[in-house]
Amino acid sequence: MKQKLSEQYYQGYCLQAYELFGAHLCEEQRRKGVRFSVYAPNAKAIQVIGSFNDWSCEGCRMERSDERGIYSLFIPGVKEGDLYKYRVTQATGRVVDKMDPYAFHSELRPNTASIVSNVNFALWQDQDWMNQRTKNYDRPLNIYEMHLGSWKKANHVDFINYRAIAQDLIAYAKQMHFTHVEFMPLCEYPFDGSWGYQCSGYFAVTSRYGECEDLAYLINELHRAGIGVIMDFVPVHFVKDDFSLSYFDGTPLYEYAKYEDADSQWGTANFNLWREEVRSFLMSAAAFWLDKYHVDGIRMDAISNIIHWHGNKDRGENQGALDFIRRMNYHLSAAYPGVMLIAEDSSDFPNVTKLTIDHGLGFDYKWDLGWMNDTLKYLELDPVYRKWHHNQITFSMAYFYSERFLCEFSHDEVVHGKKTIVDKLWGSYEQKFAQLRTLYLYMFTHPGKKLNFMGNELAHFREWDEQKENDWFLLSYPQHDAFHHYFARLGELYEKEPALYEKDYDYESFRWIDADNADENLFSYIRRSDNKEFVVILNFSPNLYRAHRFGVLSKGTYHEVLNSEQDIWGGCHVVNEKAIKAEAVPYNQMAQSITVDVPPFGGVLLEVRKRKRSAAAKQVQKQTPKKQASKKQGKTNSDKSTQRK
User: Which of 66, 90, 103, 122 is most enclosed, with most CB atoms within 10 A?
Assistant: First the structure.
């Protein structure tokens, strides 16, 4: 088994390098202990030091187990929970104490020792969930993006434990109708302010929130409650700290050899994605979370920096990195067919969500950063000027079907002086909330899956700070509390109405009613499935439109199922209480039309209830073909007799 993994590792196809490397509890020659293995081809010598030998390297020299660079040593008596490091005599002769690149757990920063850990957990009770999970193409996918350390804090100050947060998080996700939670990186990292995107331990669960088994418990409980888990993953760059991967054996082992390639825009080191051993390292790191922690999706960060050198289109495509990402996505999808692979990609590179066999990158979803940017820029404008930027709302549907897009308002939109979602919007306090409600009706009825960062559902005014928990006290303010309930109602409608999710990526699921009413800042469209149809009307102006006419496809009655200006949401209560009957009045190039009261800065969601056939019509359909033919024949003879007379 290890020989096979070793060959796969060197060839760049290994998904289970964590079974080959790291610290593994085992028994050899009837003695219990730990086998340590590490890859360092250019090291002159490596010793294992730890709490079990008083951090002395005497008698703990690792032996080179193959000519290509694997070092290994079994040490009897080492047990779970013991601390250790590798003392590496580098190619230059410099001696450095390094963390284990494949450690499953580490000390809490600023300490850096690795910890012997067992990740073969016996607690799993989520088999039903694992058996039925899919990529959710035709299912609702409403993601709650979270920074675990600042969602809620123990005593409002300290990090909360994985276990301690489980029941509160489950109850909240259920209340708000989130189908999945997405955790910002939970790999080990030294600097809190990097939010986990500058990793040091790709296989190590961050010790900020507890032990390895504590995280497994949290995920198991989420699955048992019917809630999926997505993990952020960073395949582009890693920290330069001397205790970590940087120049591990004294040579550029994980990073590029050229400084201009290795040095990233974040002050970190770029992975050399052309190197086969690095490819196996990262492929195994992603698979590790799917295998050992039953994660349901991997969201990969900064994919534009994989596509182009340093994310700069002018510097050209990084072909080796593109080959790597195609290979990783192909093998992950084959090994874990129900797992979602999601790209955070700001480039216009084509075919990101197409299969690798069709020359795509093999992702299942791509964040729609264009939709996010255009929508928020439009809503920052004074309504007087919006008619000249009307296309910022309509443009998304011009390219939507080119990829499998996911609509997102992520953590990146609410930090670093950008303001929060509600605070970006033009107007007074009340006007911001009115537009916020309409914005979210737009988001939940726009084709594509959904993602929101924690705090968006509270209408957070304070920018996110990883050192502070969410401003839960906002729910004591009427406007915030009303919006919180409104957001939950949108999630409920989205979750239960197939017309809003089932055929997201099918042209037939969406149709504009009027995409060109720039003067009135009005947008209207239809969302539909095989069995149901909704009309969506969005008013991004401060004007009230009484009895405004809109074309519709179907005869029947139109019933208002949601109005963003209902008084229960804190609105002005311009609503359509009575059913609206479609009239045979052509409008918007459709044979039928309806008249709707559209509130200022308001959104209206109408459900179509088509006319039922009369009892007489149903009776005709039930008649036998013979009787129908007889009646038809009789009518024909009668007609002929009349014509003759």
Answer: 103
Nearest to 11 by CA among 265, 284, 296: 284
Residue with tokens 């930027």: 389
User: Could you give phi then psi for residue 15, rounded to 5 degrees?
Assistant: -105, -5
Q: 576: which 2 tokens?
A: 């359509």
- What does the DSSP assignment read for 140-188? --EEEEE-HHHHS-BTTTBPPPHHHHHHHHHHHHHHHT-SEEEESP-EE
Cβ-based neighbours of 529, under 8 Å, separated by 6 or more:
498, 499, 502, 503, 509
- Residue 453's identity, in one-letter code, is F
User: Which pTM value belongs to this model?
Assistant: 0.93
Q: What single-letter DSSP state applies at residue 260? A: H
What's the pLDDT at 641? 35
In this structure, the chain runs to a length of: 645
Other CB atoms within a 10 A radius of the CB of residue 484 amount to 17
58 in active site:
no
- Classify burial at 370, counting beta carbons within 10 Å of its beta carbon; exposed 0-12, middle 13-18, buried 19 or more: middle
Q: Could you give the count of Cα atoms lying within 13 Å of 252 in the half-sphere of its Cβ?
A: 16
Catalytic member of 188, 221, 301, 504 = 301
155 vs 496 pLDDT, higher one: 496
Among 70, 41, 73, CA closest to 57:
73
> Which tokens is 349 given?
């590179």
One-letter amino acid for residue 410 of the chain: S
String of DSSP letters for 386-406? HGGGTHHHHTHHHHGGGS-EE
What three-state secondary structure class fits 18?
helix
Dmax of the chain from CA atoms? Answer: 122
Token pair listed for 555: 């005869």
pLDDT at residue 256 is higher than 50? yes
The CB density around residue 547, as the number of other CB atoms within 10 Å, is 9
Q: N- to C-terminal Cα distance for the chain? A: 96
Whether 344 sits among the annotated catalytic residues: the reply is: yes
Q: How far apart are CA 168 and CA 172, in angstroms?
A: 6
Reading the block at residue 316, the tokens are: 């050209």
3 state SS for 280-304: HHHHHHHHHHHHHCCCCEEEECCCH
Active-site residue among 188, 221, 296, 344? 344
Dump pLDDT digits (tens) for 521-579.
999 999 999 999 999 999 999 999 999 999 999 999 999 999 999 999 999 999 999 99
Q: Up-side HSE of residue 612: CA atoms within 13 Å toward CB?
A: 4
